[in-house]
Amino acid sequence: MFGYHAKMRCRGYILIAMLSLASLLLAGCQGSSDDDRIVLKFPHVTAPGTPKGQGAERLRELIAERLGDRVVMEVYPSGQLMNEDDAIEMLAFGEVQMIAPSLSKFDRLTRKYQVFDLPFLFPDLEAVEAFQQSSVGQDLLGELSRKGFLGLAYWHNGMKQFGGPVPMRRPEDAAGLKFRIMESDVLEAQILAMKANPQKMAFGEVYQALQTGAIDAQENTWSNNYSQKFFEVQPWFTESNHGYLGYLLTVNPGQWKKLPADIRLELEQIIAEVTAEVNANAAAFNIKDRARILESGQSQIIEPSVEEMDAWRRVMRPVWDEFADEIGEAVMSATPAGPAQ
Ligand code: LMR
Hints:
Layout: H1 4-26, E1 38-43, H2 51-67, E2 71-76, H3 84-92, H4 125-133, H5 135-140, E3 150-159, E4 161-164, E5 178-181, H6 185-193, E6 197-200, H7 206-212, E7 217-220, H8 222-227, E8 236-238, E9 244-251, H9 253-258, H10 261-296, E10 300-302, H11 306-316, H12 318-327, H13 329-332
Parallel strand pairs: 1-2, 5-6, 5-7, 8-10
Antiparallel strand pairs: 3-9, 4-7, 4-8
Helix pairs in contact: 2-10, 6-12
(2S)-2-hydroxybutanedioic acid (LMR) is lined by residues 45-46, 52, 102, 157, 182, 203, 220, 224, 245.
């Protein structure tokens, strides 16, 4: 029987194989409503009050305001339409027109995006932003366009924290625990480096898996830990800031090119404005939600000492060496890691 990992990898291959056929079938075919306005369906998995949720809603508003007679955006938050792996497939088939999965979820389609998952590579959102705005980072937006996915922008969520059933001050405290991770081989290696057990799982299943004990622990941003109510079902967080969670705002390049040029231009302008807002506000969402978790009284937050943080870094650092070759020197050298010695 296939495990989740093998199943997802296999889905990736099937997906790539079907893309060329899909783009042929899609030529000239945009979603359209009864009144002939172009319909842009945007499903995503986070709650409305998150960096991605707010960004999607703001896109919908500005599109209604400036292009309302010709374009309508429909936003489906909280995984109500589909999970993000399905959204990636549905975009390829033109069933939805815009998605923003975390960069980790493109792992099966390109190795280069693995750079975003390397633990402790980016110390904070400013460092991620500098990399994304570099020429290497901007080129990466188009990395998947020949496979049917055109990145239009990077949206931040924030830095990830560990959460679990016991206080995790040092990596040894996490040993043996079963951690939910996103579909990413880097994240799998990171959890193995902690001598814990990784389990790839869709976002929408995490709350129940924590509640029933199917998993013990997980990693996510304050925004997701709060809005998914993970603090209700796990008593301890470690403020580790060990990794980045951000999104690729993505369209199907075939469909995108078919849009009337003036509409596409206006959409690009709206996306640039909304991206600036999302990325300027993401940190504030996370700070607010951290405070709300504390206020709930249901979880405690450990702030590791400098020495404890060094222990986390030491344990995870070998993960870089495992993936640096696949990611490639050109990409790695544009990150805070700098050129290989
Ligand atoms: C996750 O699966 O943990 C995240 O990718 C969810 C999200 O979209 O923030």
